[in-house]
Each structure stands twice: as structure tokens, then as C-alpha cells.
Amino acid sequence: MDEQEESQLGVVEVLDLLPSYVLGILDSDEKMAVEETLRAHPELRTHVRETEAAVGQLALAAPHAPLRKEVAAQVFRRARASIGAPVGPLAPSTTPADITPTAATPAPEPPARPILGSDVRPVRDSRQRGRQRNRMSLGQWLRERRYANWALLGMLTLAMLLVIVFLRARMVIGEVGQMVVQRDQYIQQLQGENQEIQQQMQRQNGQIAALTVAPLRIILEPGASAPPTAGAALFITENLGIISAFGLPALPETQNYQLWLIPAQGSAVSAGLLRMNRDGLILNTVEIPAGAADFAAVGVSVEPAGGSPEPAGSVLLLGNRP
Amino acid sequence: MPSMPSEHLSQHTEESLLQQVAHKHVDAFEVLYHRHAQVMYNLIFRIVRQQKVAEELLQDTFWQVWLRADQYEHEDAGTAWMYAIARRRALDYLHAGELRPPGIENGITTVPEVSAQDEMTNAEKETVEGQRQQVLAALRKLPEAQRACLVLAYFTGLSHSEIAAQTNSAPDLVKVQIRSGLENFAQFLATFSRQGDNPSAAV
After folding, report:
1. What digits encode the pLDDT tens for the residues A229-256?
2. How far is CA A16 from each of CA A22, A54, A117, B95, rounded to the nearest angstrom?
3. For residue B138, which of B188, B182, B193, B202 has the smallest C-alpha distance?
């Protein structure tokens, strides 16, 4: 026996419960059991109809209560308005405007038909729900029922909007994250450049200090192959020197100016390559090799790119140690 | 939808009228209203006992009839279908508002006498009034316990246990009283109908 069969009642039991079922006063378990049995026994449908008809007759037992004619006008007006038919003037009403159905009110979806096709839906479930609410006005109650579907639709729309907003927010957060990473990289780059500038400034400050306090100063004069306006000065402090040259022609990339320390006896020693700036000036720091500290003269020659171990090109500037 | 003369529609059964209402036939709807609004209002007022509320619920009931007539199954009794909507609407309001249903102490199980207000003028209303007298007579013929349980269940929607508390009975016994009461009620009505709308002769 499956679960569905277990939940069914016998036909006799259902016939006993049928009046209470049609009256809507069964509890939810009994109601479900009756409905299961009615589904399984369509022949009981006749009994259901007879019971519904008998219950319906009980309405006639209600004592007479005067019904105002204005109510009819409002009922008809609303029905006509729902199909776009002329509605005529609104009859006077004593009912509050906020709870009176209006012609402009959209027609809500009717509730689903009960299992038996009859409208005799048990009221017990709805009553149980109703008892959980606080006291409400009739207008609130009617609006709640009429617009339940609209409220559901509104909630679904709101949920969709929230999902869209959530997805959009995630996208924006991702974009912002990328921007933050890029900004951090840019900051690191700026910090690197700043550090380099600081080091360059320190070097320049050292050069300036060397220029002002250097005990040895050597003036270089132009040679025969140099422009007559060319010249240079070399300032030496211990093993560090600074050379400042001007008036020299710019060299192609295949050539470099190279500084030489020339001893009284022996071969010239390289003190390094010289770099010319965009203005055609040379301002370089050079190291004085330990074995060449007692040089007798200084010269600047044109050498192949990267320099030469010995002077091979033409010497443009030359100066003697004082 | 073209309108049919109301004079012609007045001969139609409730089932036929509901079929036309399902097709948004306003004239059929108006005939249904004029034929049943008073009884439905009586029923609603009996349950909620407030004029404005009852009027609103009656309007709402007919609005549901207008909207849901296409769901009406034509083998069912149209009158019972409409009355059930009215009753359910009123009971839902009664319980949603936590209004205390009128109990035995308020005389709800007392079967009213036909009053001067019940006098109706046209033949249609006379038919309804004749049916009402049959219903009241059938209720009077029921044993007191059956009538009390049946009337409380119908007009208050109370559960078996709640009715048992009001009638100093047991819930299972209430079920039996309701079942027996409704069976007897239907039998009495059938008897009155066979006797030619003269329930007083049988009471």
C-alpha cells in the first residue's frame, strides 16, 4: 500500500465527513484525506453536489436585512467598467471611498478552483491564517486579497532588480579592484623614479661639492683637430674627479669621448668614457685609478663606441697637471 | 458582447446565467444580482453583523462571481456556488478580524420567524420567500442538538471542537450531529417540495 492509499479514507468515512468538508470545518489532515478519497472515487461526486446544494439552502435561513439599492449600482458599475462598457454616474454611497472597489481597479487573478469544482472551499485553513493577523479594516482585508498576486509580482520584480544590482556591484567592484592594482603599480613606478632622482641629486650635490673644494684643478685646451672654442676642466679630490667639457662636437653612436690619465713615463690609463648631454655639454664624475694617481697630463680622445684600452683616435683636448 | 433583453434573461436558470456571465454578459450578471443579492446580503450580514462591512463583502462577492464565472462547473448548483462564495468571504473576514463569532448565547441557533420585512412583491421574490419558509420549517423540524450544530457550523465556521465547547458536547458527537442534521434537513426540504411549497402543513 503506497502513501497515497494510506492517506485515503473509506467511502463510508468520507460520507460521514462530507457535510463538515463542504462546510469547511475539517482540520487540514481530515480535509486532505477526504480529498484524496474523492479523487480516487469519482462516483462520490454526486454526493458532494447533493451536500453542497443542501448546505447552500441554509443561506435562506438568515433573517432579512435591508439592502440599499446603491450597492447594486456600484456592483454593476464595476462590472461594466471592467469590460469598457458605459458605467453612467456613480450612485451615492455611504461606504468609505478607500475601501470601495473602483472601476479603475485592475481585475486580480481569481483564486484556483478547489478540487471538487465547487466553490465550497473549507474556510478553516484561511481562518487559521486569519487568526494570526491583527485586527484589520475591511478595506485592508479586501486589498490584501485582491492584490496578493500583484504583491507577488512586485516582489519577484524587486528580487530581479536586486540580482541585477548585485551583479552590477560585483562588476564595479572588480573594475575598482583592477584600478587599485594599476594605481599601486603606478605608485611603485613613481617611487622608483623618485629614488633614482634622489640618487641623481645626491651625485650632483657631490659633484658640486667636489667642484667647490677640489684641491687639484686641470684645464684642458683644444688640440689641432678640436674646435678652437672647445675646452674642459678636471677637478680631482683624492680618487674622485669631475670633468666639465664644452664646445666639443656631437659624436655618432659608433664613437665615444674617452678620458685619459697620461703619466710622465709609460702608457696612458683610461679614466672612463664621457657622456654628452642634450646641450652638448659634458659633466661626468670619474674615478682615478689607484695606479694612475701620479699622472702628468690629461687628455680627451675620440674612440670607438665602448672605448679603447689605449688612445687610438685623435686627441681633442689636452691639459698638463699643475 | 451584445446585450439580451432582461425580460428574456429572467426566465433563465442560474446555471445558464452564470455561463453568460462567464462571457461578460452584464445583463445576465444584473439578473443574477437582482435574484440573489438580498439572500446573500442576509447571509453576510448574519455573519458579520455590520452594515457597511456586509455591503462591501456583498460587492466583493459579486465581483468574484463576475471574475470567476468561467470556473463554475455547470453540473453544480449555481445558487449554492454563489452562496458559498458569499459565506466564505464573510467567514474569512470574521476570522481575519478576530471578531468573536456570535454563539448560542446570542441566539444564532434560534430559527427566525418570517417578519413583515420579508414580504416581497414580485413573483421571483415570492419564489425565494417560499424557499426560505421551507428552509426555516425544515430547520425547526430538526432536533435541537442537530440544529444547533448545523447552524453554528454554517454561520460561524467554527471547528468541531469549538462547536462542542459551545454546545457542551464532544467533537465526535458534533460531527455526527452535523451529518445527521444535514441529511434530515435535505429530506425535510425534499418532502416540503413534494407537498407543494406549503411547509406549514408539514411542521
Report:
1. 999 999 888 788 889 999 999 999 899 9
2. 11, 15, 20, 26
3. B188
For the sheet containing A216-222, what is the strand order? A269-274, A255-262, A297-304, A315-320, A216-222, A231-237, A240-246, A282-287
Nearest CA to A234 out of A312, A309, A292, A314 is that of A292
Instruction: For A319, list phi and psi in degrees, rounded to 5.
Output: -150, 145
Q: How far apart, in whole angstroms, are the C-alpha atoms of residue A152 and residue A169? A: 25
Question: Which B residues 133-162 touch A at CB under 8 Å?
Answer: 135-136, 139, 150-151, 153-155, 157-160
Q: Which residues of chain A lie closer than 8 angstroms to B52, CB-CB? A: 94-96, 138
- Enumerate the residues of chain A whose CB falls inside 8 A of the CB of residue B92: 123, 126-127, 130, 141
Residues A47, A53, A59, A61, CA torsion sign:
negative
C-alpha distance across the termini of chain A, in Å: 124
In contact, B32 and B82? CB cutoff 8 Å: yes
Residue B189 to residue A57, Cβ atoms within 8 A: yes
Any B CB within 8 A of A105 CB? no
A41-75 confidence digits (pLDDT tens): 888 888 888 899 899 999 999 988 899 988 998 89
Asked if A64 reaches chain B (Cβ–Cβ under 8 Å), the answer is yes
Burial of A85 (0-12, 13-18, 19+ CB in 10 A): middle
Q: Which residues of B touch A106 (CB under 8 A)?
A: none
Q: Which residues of chain B have a pLDDT value below 70?
A: 1-7, 75, 97-125, 196-203
Contact yes or no for B109/B151 (Cβ under 8 A)? yes
Quick check: B96 and A136 CB within 8 A?
Answer: yes
